Amino acid sequence: MNPWEDDLHREPFREAVRALLRQPLLQASGKDAETFRLVRRHADGLRRWFIEGPGWPLLIESEFARLIKYPGRPGNPDHPALDTRRGLPFNRRRYTWLCLILSLLEKSERQTTLGDLAIEIERLGRGDPVLTETGMEPVFDRRDARMDLVSVVRLLIDQGVLLRIHGSEEGYIQDSGDVLYTLNRALLARLPAFRRSPNTLADSPPHERPGHLQDELGAIAPEARPRAIRTRLMRLLLDTPVVYYADLDPAERDYLQPQRTRLLDFLHAGTGLLPEIRAEGIALTDPETGLTDLRMPEEGTSGHAALLLADFYATHLRGPNAQSAIPYSRSEQHLRQCAKQHAHRWRRDTREPAGLRQLHRDVVHRLCALHLLRQTADDLHPLPAIARYRLTAEK
Q: pLDDT tens, 200-254?
């Protein structure tokens, strides 16, 4: 047995793997310092494990450790970047401005201000036909636009790319102050996790460029295809709540059938995740819950509503019309009925139509992110794993 393979059976090594899966960018100082030291102690074994398994490069430098997580299926919208203060998902405008800020910071001085960033972003985006047509041209004379810009900057602060030296973002939002930052160039250079440089996609239509950032460089040789399939499956199993056989292509299903035990044993040894194998697919469950970013159920109004809607979807899945979709409006109607029944327990805002619609959107998004539900246009499609949340008794 190689030394790194022997590490698989030691709890500190597993703890380091889990830390990188939970937080792919660890800083050497601050709240990450102890975890960073743990990762450095197991550097060689960790690099080997992540390459042998999901094929994710691990970079460990004096200031940080960066696990570059290429997705198993590019373009998954279920786990967006979040506003670090309010927990709201990034919209298209915030993502666009994030890209603009990253391009500016690459050429920026070591210190900059939020006001200067705003001026440069406005200059860079002024008159761009795509940004203008889609309503994402950066103009910061409105409070909502400044709030979106601050959400992007706070994400970069949280990742260590920007260090706040003086001032407050709240003052900028109120148009009453500015903020001074120091730029960490080393972290800035390692923040993107692309296979291809954005500069190589200038000739592609704008709407196709994000998907091409994760394209393989060159064709995969026939002898390398089994390894490529193994890598994709590892990524899906680690990053996806449930991997359904129906979502795999024929080559992936053919590979998984004889290799399933070997793949799952490898992942369990390195992470402690327990495989749950069903007729429809595979889920890796975490008994320690440390790798769970979305939970089901949760407490409060959102958790109660999620359980009630999950029961509604699961009952549909077991009924005579299981193959048919549930209209989005029918799901909203069911939640309205639940809200009337539980009005004395739920938040006050759910007594208003707008608040109830927002609750429904939040629950649907959570169930889709957990791969318990799939939304297409105006329809909802319950997925097999939602059956575990069926509350009503069989008749």
A: 777 777 677 777 777 766 667 788 899 999 999 999 999 999 999 999 999 999 9
Strand ranges, E, within the chain: 25-27, 58-60, 64-67, 111-113, 162-167, 179-183, 243-244, 274-277, 281-285, 326-327, 373-376, 379-382
Task: Answer whether 171's CB lies under 8 Å from 178's CB.
Answer: yes
Supply the DSSP symbol for 297.
S
- In our burial notation (b when 16+ CB lie closer than 10 A, e otherwise), range 257-290 reads eeeeeebbebbebbbbbebeeeebbbbbeeeeee
Beta bridge partners of 130: none
> Tokens 């993107």 appear where?
192
| Domain membership flag for residue 357 | yes
Residues 103 and 182 in one domain: yes
Instruction: Please indicate, yes or no, if residue 186 is contained in any of the structural domains.
Output: yes
In the DSSP assignment, the letter for residue 385 is: G
The beta-carbon contacts of 200-208 under 8 Å, at least 24 apart in sequence, are 206/130
Q: Is the dihedral of CA 75, 76, 79, 85 positive or negative?
A: positive
Domain total in the chain = 4
